[in-house]
Amino acid sequence: MSEFLSGAGLAVWLGILTSISPCPLATNITAVSYIGRKVERPRLVLLGGLLYTAGRTLAYIALAALLAKSLLSAPRVSFFLQTHMLRLTGPLLIVVGMFLTGLLRIGASGPDMSERVTSRADRMGIWGAGLMGFAFALSFCPTSAALFFGSLLPLTVNTGSVLALPLLYGVGTALPVVVFAVIIATGAHRIAAAFGRVRQFDLWARWITGAVFIGAGIFITLRYIFNVV
Questions:
Q1: pLDDT tens digits, 50-81
Q2: Is residue 66 part of a domain?
Q3: How many domains does the chain have?
Q4: Cα–Cα distance between 193 and 104 in angstroms, integer?
Q5: CB of 134 within 8 A of CB of 58?
Q6: Got the DSSP string for 39-74?
Q7: Which of the two residues, 111 and 1, has the higher pLDDT score?
Q8: Any domain includes 19
Q9: Residue 229: inside a domain, yes or no?
C-alpha cells in the first residue's frame, strides 16, 4: 500500500512538472485561452477544464496501458525488465534529471499543431476541450517525453498500476488548466498574477526535482551496476 501511495504521489508530481515545462506549458496556455472564451458563462469554463483533463488523462492511460501491457506480455522482455529494471532506473533518472535542470537539451522541430487542433476543436464547441486535451497529451517534446517514457512508464511497469498511475499523471499535466479555469470563472483579473507564480514555481521545482533525480540515479547506478556503495 505504501509503495502504491508513494508511486501515486510521484506520478502526480511528474505530471505537474510536465505541465509547467516550456513546451507543454505553451499548449496549456492555448487550452486556457480556448476555454476562457466562455468567461461570461463560468460553468462552461469549469466544464471545459474538466473535459480537457479527461482528454489528457485518457490519452496517457491508453498509451501507458498499451506500452506496459506489450512489454509485460512478451516473456523475454518481461523477464529482462524484472531482472534488470533496477539497473536501468539509475541511468534513466540521471538522463531525466539532466533534462529537468537543462544540462541536456534536444532541439525540437516540426510544425506547430496547436492551431490545427484549436480550429477542429472550435467546430465541436465546448466538447472540443476534450479533443484538445487528448491531442496535446500526445504532442511530446523532449522534456515531456523524458518524464513520461523515462520516469512514469518504468514506474508503471514496476508497480503494475497501468491505469491508476497514468490517470494521476494525466490529472497532474492538466492541473494548471483546471486551476486557471477556476480563476477565470471566479475572477479573470487574477490571471496575470497566477501565470507569474507558475513561472516562478517552474524554475525551482524543475531544478530541485532534477537534482534529486540525478543524485538518486547516481546512487542507484553505483550500487546496482558498479557495486561501489
A1: 999 999 999 999 999 888 877 766 666 666 76
A2: yes
A3: 1
A4: 30
A5: yes
A6: TT-HHHHHHHHHHHHHHHHHHHHHHHHHHHHHHHHS
A7: 1
A8: yes
A9: no
The single-letter code of the amino acid at 192 is A
pTM passes above 0.90:
no
Name the grid cell of 206.
Answer: 524543475
User: Phi and psi at residue 109, in whole multiples of 5°?
Assistant: -125, 165
Query: Rounded mean pLDDT of 133-159?
Result: 87
- The cell 523532449 sits on which residue? 142
Length of the chain: 229
Query: Is the alpha carbon torsion for 22, 13, 174, 176 positive or negative?
Result: negative
Check residue 123 and report its DSSP letter.
T
Round to whole Å and give the CA distance between 130 and 124.
10
Each residue's pLDDT tens digit, 82-91: 677 778 888 9
**Do 63 and 71 touch, CB atoms closer than 8 A?**
no
User: What is the domain extent for residue 209?
Assistant: 2-224
pLDDT of residue 109: 45
Q: Are 118 and 34 in contact (CB under 8 A)?
A: yes
Q: How far apart are CA 181 and CA 18, in angstroms?
A: 19
> If you average pLDDT over residues 145-167, what whole number do you get?
88
Nearest residue to 124 via CA among 55, 24, 28: 55
Percent of the chain with pLDDT over 90: 26
Chain centroid offset of residue 76 CA: 29
Q: What nine digits make up the cell of 40?
A: 461570461
To the nearest 10 degrees (0 to 180), the angle between helices 164-186 and 22-35 is 50
Helix, strand, coil % (nearest 5) of the chain?
85, 0, 15
